[in-house]
Amino acid sequence: MTPHRIVTAPDLAPPVGFAHAVVAAPGSTVHLGGQTAQDSTGAIVGTSMAAQFDQAAGNVVLALEAAGSRAEHLVSFIIYVTDVAAYKAALPELGPLWRKHFGRHYPAVALLGVTQLFDDEALIELVATAVIPAAEGAPDDRAG
Asked: Residues of the signal sequence (predicted)?
């Protein structure tokens, strides 16, 4: 269960797989750099959207853990893809992969189509922001 308040705006279409807004609990903010399907050697693994999402999402979790955070601390998530149609076609595979890495926690999410990512073989890049709650021992970034 996330310590942050998930907001569903009553005048917007119901969110599916994302939150309209997230009010972060006081704590320490973690800004993750973009995570692609790079393995520990820096090579892009997988040639399908689902395979690359699986690796990139695993990389997000590893980066969160290295920062002392967890998936339920995510408040914002941006997905960059080189082919929006391929991403949509892969949704039946992506849902279970999301739950594998992030559970049923859905932060505020945006999907953006781009012409190219830094690594030529990369199809997807994930950028995330998390807030480690002060209640879990993190200092409050907002404290003077």
From this structure: none
What whole-number percentage of the chain has pLDDT above 90?
Answer: 69
Q: Can you give the pTM of this predicted structure?
A: 0.85
Cα–Cα distance measured from residue 132 to residue 24, given in angstroms and rounded to the nearest whole number: 9
Task: Please state the CATH superfamily assignment of the domain spanning residues 5-130 in this structure.
Answer: RutC-like (3.30.1330.40)
Q: Does position 143 have pLDDT exceeding 60, yes or no?
A: no
Distance CA 107, CA 32 (A): 14
Sign for the pseudo-dihedral over CA of 117, 120, 122, 123: positive
> What pLDDT is stored for residue 112 in this prediction?
99
